[in-house]
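FORM 12-B: Structure-to-Sequence Request
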């Protein structure tokens, strides 16, 4: 990347970073108990009332950072899937990756496992779902983006049936928590650092591949003609999208449409340069989910809505609009 091109990437990323910071500050100050910026600053300095310290350090900051990380993970995963499929309707939720990850995580929960095993099971479910979708869509010939998209929708519906079956046979006392988690729940997110670290790691690893991803978006034949090693890059995209989706699902449950809306909107504004789109997706996706989670926990406070409800209300009309435009 030339110095001039590198400099041109910074202004939009700086704007998105400031918007993300503003969303995080809003999320920390707004709630059933309102806090001023002065209260938050006092807590950060080790002062403030015990109630303010509990609200900021134990509840709102971990939840807000988890929401930012999950939103960034889903948006980057969606951007990668859209590059791979050359289709703006691709998304981990639509293609069944989120459903596969949810099945893997629920299976580990029902077996009484926890921690890293749940994350590993979710990754296995997401990766298996990716292989299943691509294998079924390919069949005996070549796949097209529309055929792959339809296959993904069918597989996602199948995962939904499996999830319903697992809920039907699960213990009654665990059913409410599992249902709320499946709708997207950040209320128990207390460790935001693993998803944040994975988001940063994936973005740093993919940034040098920005030129190859730009060529890949034009199609595998053109990419191969221009010297891109297509097959390893496709597998790298599969693995990265599966890992991002698995971490997002284990952190906050199944949250849809973030990976659909954010990359498409950014491409309308910033263009198709993946060197800019991927970090922009991390920032904009995080900002969107922080705002959605803030709305979810304040709209009917002190009761809380699942954040997946808010993202679905935003994503469904956007999906229909994109589907209409792609006729």
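FORM 12-B RESPONSE
SEQUENCE OUT:
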């Amino acid at each position: 990347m030339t110095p001039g091109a590198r400099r041109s990437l910074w202004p939009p990323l700086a704007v998105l970073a400031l918007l993300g910071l503003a969303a995080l500050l809003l999320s920390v100050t707004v709630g059933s108990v309102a806090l001023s910026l002065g209260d938050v600053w006092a807590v950060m300095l080790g002062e403030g009332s015990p109630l303010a310290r509990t609200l900021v350090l134990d509840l709102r900051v971990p939840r807000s950072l988890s929401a930012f990380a999950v939103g960034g993970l889903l948006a980057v995963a969606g951007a990668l899937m859209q590059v791979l499929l050359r289709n703006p309707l691709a998304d981990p939720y639509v293609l069944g990756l989120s459903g596969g990850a949810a099945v893997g995580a629920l299976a580990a929960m029902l077996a009484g496992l926890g921690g890293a095993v749940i994350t590993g099971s979710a990754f296995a479910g997401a990766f298996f779902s990716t292989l299943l979708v691509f294998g079924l869509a390919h069949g005996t010939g070549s796949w097209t983006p529309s055929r792959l998209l339809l296959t993904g929708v069918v597989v996602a519906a199948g995962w939904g049936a499996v999830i319903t079956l697992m809920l039907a046979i699960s213990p009654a006392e665990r059913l409410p928590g599992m249902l709320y988690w499946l709708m997207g729940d950040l209320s128990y997110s207390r460790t935001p650092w693993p998803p944040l670290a994975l988001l940063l790691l994936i973005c740093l690893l993919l940034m040098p591949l920005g030129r190859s991803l730009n060529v890949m978006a034009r199609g595998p034949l053109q990419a191969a003609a221009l010297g891109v090693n297509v097959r390893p890059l496709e597998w790298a995209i599969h693995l990265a999208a599966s890992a991002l989706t698995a971490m997002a699902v284990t952190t906050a449950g199944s949250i849809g449409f973030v990976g659909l809306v954010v990359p498409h909107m950014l491409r309308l504004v910033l263009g198709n340069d993946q060197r800019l789109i991927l970090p922009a997706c991390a920032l904009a996706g995080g900002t969107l989910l922080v705002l959605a989670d803030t709305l979810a926990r304040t709209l009917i406070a002190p009761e809380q809505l699942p954040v997946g409800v808010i993202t679905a209300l935003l994503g469904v009309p956007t999906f229909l609009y994109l589907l209409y435009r792609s006729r």
